[in-house]
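Entry:
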Amino acid sequence: MDLGIAGKRAIVCAASRGLGRGCAMALAREGVAVTITARGAEALERTAEEIRVATGVSVTAVAGDITTEAGRAAALAACPEPDILVNNAGGPPPGDFRQWGREDWIKALDANMLTPIALIRAVIDPMIARRFGRIVNITSASVKSPIPTLGMSNGARAGLTGFVAGLARQVARHNVVINNILPGPFLTDRLRSTAEEAARAAGRPVDEVIAERARANPAGRVGDPAEFGFACAFLCSAHAGFIVGQNLLIDGGGFNSSMG
Protein backbone atom coordinates (compact mmCIF):
# COMPACT_ATOMS: atom_id res chain seq x y z
CA MET A 1 0.00 0.00 0.00
CA ASP A 2 1.23 3.48 -0.91
CA LEU A 3 0.64 5.56 2.22
CA GLY A 4 0.59 8.76 0.21
CA ILE A 5 3.18 10.64 2.28
CA ALA A 6 6.26 10.52 0.06
CA GLY A 7 7.93 13.93 0.13
CA LYS A 8 6.42 14.91 3.48
CA ARG A 9 8.58 16.05 6.40
CA ALA A 10 8.55 14.57 9.89
CA ILE A 11 10.02 15.16 13.32
CA VAL A 12 10.42 11.94 15.30
CA CYS A 13 11.45 12.38 18.92
CA ALA A 14 13.67 10.02 20.93
CA ALA A 15 14.46 8.14 17.73
CA SER A 16 18.00 6.85 18.20
CA ARG A 17 16.68 3.46 19.32
CA GLY A 18 13.58 1.54 20.30
CA LEU A 19 10.10 2.63 19.30
CA GLY A 20 11.17 6.05 18.03
CA ARG A 21 13.72 4.46 15.72
CA GLY A 22 11.09 2.03 14.46
CA CYS A 23 8.78 4.93 13.61
CA ALA A 24 11.52 6.94 11.88
CA MET A 25 12.58 3.95 9.79
CA ALA A 26 9.00 3.14 8.75
CA LEU A 27 8.29 6.75 7.75
CA ALA A 28 11.55 6.97 5.81
CA ARG A 29 10.64 3.80 3.91
CA GLU A 30 7.54 5.70 2.73
CA GLY A 31 9.69 8.52 1.35
CA VAL A 32 9.29 10.90 4.27
CA ALA A 33 12.26 13.17 5.04
CA VAL A 34 12.83 12.67 8.76
CA THR A 35 14.40 14.82 11.44
CA ILE A 36 15.27 12.63 14.39
CA THR A 37 16.14 13.71 17.90
CA ALA A 38 17.73 12.11 20.94
CA ARG A 39 20.12 13.09 23.70
CA GLY A 40 23.00 10.84 22.68
CA ALA A 41 24.68 12.32 19.60
CA GLU A 42 26.74 9.25 18.71
CA ALA A 43 23.84 6.78 18.80
CA LEU A 44 21.59 9.27 17.02
CA GLU A 45 23.99 9.79 14.12
CA ARG A 46 24.51 6.05 13.83
CA THR A 47 20.75 5.56 13.53
CA ALA A 48 20.49 8.41 11.03
CA GLU A 49 23.08 6.78 8.80
CA GLU A 50 21.37 3.39 9.06
CA ILE A 51 18.09 4.97 7.93
CA ARG A 52 19.80 6.81 5.06
CA VAL A 53 21.44 3.64 3.83
CA ALA A 54 18.24 1.60 4.14
CA THR A 55 15.91 4.11 2.50
CA GLY A 56 17.87 6.72 0.58
CA VAL A 57 15.85 9.57 2.08
CA SER A 58 17.09 12.73 3.77
CA VAL A 59 17.68 12.24 7.49
CA THR A 60 18.65 15.10 9.81
CA ALA A 61 19.97 14.22 13.26
CA VAL A 62 19.48 16.82 16.00
CA ALA A 63 21.10 15.86 19.29
CA GLY A 64 19.48 17.37 22.36
CA ASP A 65 16.98 16.86 25.14
CA ILE A 66 13.53 17.29 23.63
CA THR A 67 12.07 17.85 27.11
CA THR A 68 13.88 21.21 27.29
CA GLU A 69 13.08 24.44 25.48
CA ALA A 70 16.52 24.38 23.85
CA GLY A 71 16.05 20.82 22.63
CA ARG A 72 12.67 21.61 21.11
CA ALA A 73 13.98 24.80 19.51
CA ALA A 74 16.83 22.87 17.87
CA ALA A 75 14.49 20.26 16.42
CA LEU A 76 12.10 22.90 15.11
CA ALA A 77 14.96 24.93 13.63
CA ALA A 78 15.98 21.86 11.63
CA CYS A 79 12.40 21.17 10.51
CA PRO A 80 10.33 24.33 11.08
CA GLU A 81 7.05 23.16 9.54
CA PRO A 82 6.77 19.37 9.72
CA ASP A 83 3.83 17.60 8.15
CA ILE A 84 4.21 14.79 10.68
CA LEU A 85 5.15 14.89 14.37
CA VAL A 86 5.84 11.78 16.42
CA ASN A 87 6.07 12.67 20.09
CA ASN A 88 8.11 10.33 22.23
CA ALA A 89 10.16 10.57 25.42
CA GLY A 90 11.52 8.15 27.96
CA GLY A 91 9.22 7.34 30.85
CA PRO A 92 9.90 8.25 34.47
CA PRO A 93 11.42 5.64 36.79
CA PRO A 94 9.36 3.07 38.66
CA GLY A 95 8.91 3.18 42.40
CA ASP A 96 6.59 3.88 45.32
CA PHE A 97 4.74 7.20 45.11
CA ARG A 98 5.70 7.89 48.74
CA GLN A 99 9.28 8.33 47.53
CA TRP A 100 8.50 11.00 44.94
CA GLY A 101 8.64 14.71 45.64
CA ARG A 102 7.35 17.66 43.66
CA GLU A 103 10.47 17.86 41.48
CA ASP A 104 10.07 14.21 40.47
CA TRP A 105 6.50 14.85 39.41
CA ILE A 106 7.36 18.03 37.51
CA LYS A 107 10.09 16.19 35.61
CA ALA A 108 7.62 13.43 34.66
CA LEU A 109 5.00 15.95 33.55
CA ASP A 110 7.57 17.90 31.54
CA ALA A 111 8.69 14.79 29.66
CA ASN A 112 5.44 12.95 29.12
CA MET A 113 2.77 15.64 29.01
CA LEU A 114 4.04 19.20 28.65
CA THR A 115 6.74 18.53 26.03
CA PRO A 116 4.32 16.87 23.58
CA ILE A 117 1.85 19.70 24.12
CA ALA A 118 4.55 22.32 23.47
CA LEU A 119 5.56 20.64 20.22
CA ILE A 120 1.96 20.28 19.11
CA ARG A 121 1.42 23.98 19.76
CA ALA A 122 4.51 24.83 17.69
CA VAL A 123 3.46 22.85 14.59
CA ILE A 124 -0.31 22.70 14.48
CA ASP A 125 -1.23 26.06 12.95
CA PRO A 126 1.02 25.59 9.89
CA MET A 127 -0.48 22.11 9.51
CA ILE A 128 -3.96 23.64 9.57
CA ALA A 129 -2.91 26.21 6.97
CA ARG A 130 -1.59 23.47 4.64
CA ARG A 131 -4.62 21.27 5.36
CA PHE A 132 -2.47 18.30 6.21
CA GLY A 133 -1.02 17.20 9.53
CA ARG A 134 -0.45 13.97 11.36
CA ILE A 135 0.52 13.87 15.02
CA VAL A 136 1.15 10.62 16.85
CA ASN A 137 1.95 10.54 20.55
CA ILE A 138 3.69 7.45 21.87
CA THR A 139 2.23 6.97 25.34
CA SER A 140 1.83 3.64 27.14
CA ALA A 141 -0.53 0.72 27.67
CA SER A 142 -0.64 1.99 31.26
CA VAL A 143 -3.11 4.66 30.09
CA LYS A 144 -5.69 1.88 29.78
CA SER A 145 -4.38 -0.44 32.46
CA PRO A 146 -2.27 1.39 35.08
CA ILE A 147 0.95 -0.25 36.18
CA PRO A 148 1.27 0.10 39.98
CA THR A 149 5.02 0.74 40.02
CA LEU A 150 4.82 3.36 37.23
CA GLY A 151 2.63 5.90 38.98
CA MET A 152 4.33 8.97 37.51
CA SER A 153 4.01 7.57 34.00
CA ASN A 154 0.37 6.61 34.60
CA GLY A 155 -0.47 10.14 35.71
CA ALA A 156 1.51 12.18 33.18
CA ARG A 157 0.47 10.13 30.16
CA ALA A 158 -3.17 10.11 31.23
CA GLY A 159 -3.00 13.91 31.36
CA LEU A 160 -1.69 14.04 27.78
CA THR A 161 -4.42 11.63 26.68
CA GLY A 162 -7.13 13.87 28.08
CA PHE A 163 -5.68 16.96 26.42
CA VAL A 164 -5.37 15.23 23.03
CA ALA A 165 -8.93 13.91 23.19
CA GLY A 166 -10.24 17.46 23.17
CA LEU A 167 -7.79 19.04 20.73
CA ALA A 168 -8.01 16.25 18.14
CA ARG A 169 -11.69 16.92 17.61
CA GLN A 170 -11.12 20.64 17.14
CA VAL A 171 -8.61 20.29 14.29
CA ALA A 172 -9.80 17.20 12.41
CA ARG A 173 -11.90 19.31 10.01
CA HIS A 174 -8.63 20.76 8.70
CA ASN A 175 -7.22 17.29 7.85
CA VAL A 176 -4.98 17.49 10.91
CA VAL A 177 -5.39 14.31 12.90
CA ILE A 178 -3.93 13.46 16.28
CA ASN A 179 -3.83 9.98 17.76
CA ASN A 180 -1.95 8.10 20.45
CA ILE A 181 -0.25 4.72 20.27
CA LEU A 182 -0.12 2.79 23.53
CA PRO A 183 2.72 0.26 23.49
CA GLY A 184 2.70 -2.81 25.66
CA PRO A 185 5.84 -4.92 26.06
CA PHE A 186 8.27 -4.18 23.24
CA LEU A 187 11.91 -5.20 23.16
CA THR A 188 13.34 -1.81 24.11
CA ASP A 189 15.75 -0.37 26.66
CA ARG A 190 12.71 0.65 28.73
CA LEU A 191 11.46 -2.93 28.93
CA ARG A 192 14.91 -4.12 29.92
CA SER A 193 15.27 -1.47 32.64
CA THR A 194 11.92 -2.34 34.24
CA ALA A 195 12.80 -6.03 33.96
CA GLU A 196 16.12 -5.36 35.67
CA GLU A 197 14.27 -3.73 38.56
CA ALA A 198 12.00 -6.76 38.90
CA ALA A 199 14.94 -9.13 38.56
CA ARG A 200 16.85 -7.40 41.36
CA ALA A 201 13.83 -7.51 43.64
CA ALA A 202 13.31 -11.22 42.96
CA GLY A 203 16.97 -12.21 42.82
CA ARG A 204 16.56 -13.63 39.32
CA PRO A 205 18.37 -13.16 35.97
CA VAL A 206 16.91 -10.34 33.90
CA ASP A 207 16.65 -12.46 30.74
CA GLU A 208 14.55 -14.96 32.68
CA VAL A 209 12.18 -12.18 33.74
CA ILE A 210 11.84 -10.95 30.15
CA ALA A 211 11.25 -14.46 28.84
CA GLU A 212 8.59 -15.05 31.48
CA ARG A 213 6.86 -11.83 30.55
CA ALA A 214 6.92 -12.87 26.88
CA ARG A 215 5.36 -16.24 27.65
CA ALA A 216 2.60 -14.57 29.67
CA ASN A 217 1.51 -12.42 26.72
CA PRO A 218 -1.26 -13.91 24.55
CA ALA A 219 1.02 -13.49 21.52
CA GLY A 220 3.68 -15.55 23.31
CA ARG A 221 6.34 -12.90 22.74
CA VAL A 222 7.26 -9.28 23.21
CA GLY A 223 6.84 -6.81 20.38
CA ASP A 224 9.35 -5.81 17.72
CA PRO A 225 9.87 -2.01 17.47
CA ALA A 226 9.75 -2.35 13.67
CA GLU A 227 6.11 -3.51 13.74
CA PHE A 228 5.26 -0.64 16.03
CA GLY A 229 6.81 1.68 13.46
CA PHE A 230 4.62 0.33 10.68
CA ALA A 231 1.50 1.04 12.74
CA CYS A 232 2.72 4.57 13.38
CA ALA A 233 3.40 5.10 9.67
CA PHE A 234 -0.18 4.14 8.80
CA LEU A 235 -1.59 6.62 11.33
CA CYS A 236 0.61 9.25 9.66
CA SER A 237 -0.63 8.31 6.21
CA ALA A 238 -2.93 10.09 3.80
CA HIS A 239 -5.46 7.32 4.43
CA ALA A 240 -5.83 7.95 8.17
CA GLY A 241 -7.77 11.21 8.06
CA PHE A 242 -10.91 9.69 9.61
CA ILE A 243 -9.05 8.17 12.58
CA VAL A 244 -9.32 10.96 15.11
CA GLY A 245 -8.37 11.15 18.79
CA GLN A 246 -7.94 7.41 19.18
CA ASN A 247 -5.75 5.38 21.52
CA LEU A 248 -4.33 2.44 19.58
CA LEU A 249 -3.25 -0.25 22.02
CA ILE A 250 -0.47 -2.46 20.64
CA ASP A 251 0.27 -5.02 23.30
CA GLY A 252 -0.15 -8.49 21.80
CA GLY A 253 -3.56 -8.82 23.46
CA GLY A 254 -2.24 -8.26 26.96
CA PHE A 255 -5.07 -5.93 27.93
CA ASN A 256 -8.02 -8.24 28.45
CA SER A 257 -11.20 -6.46 27.37
CA SER A 258 -14.06 -7.12 24.97
CA MET A 259 -14.07 -3.45 23.96
CA GLY A 260 -10.33 -2.94 23.37
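The mean pLDDT is 95.
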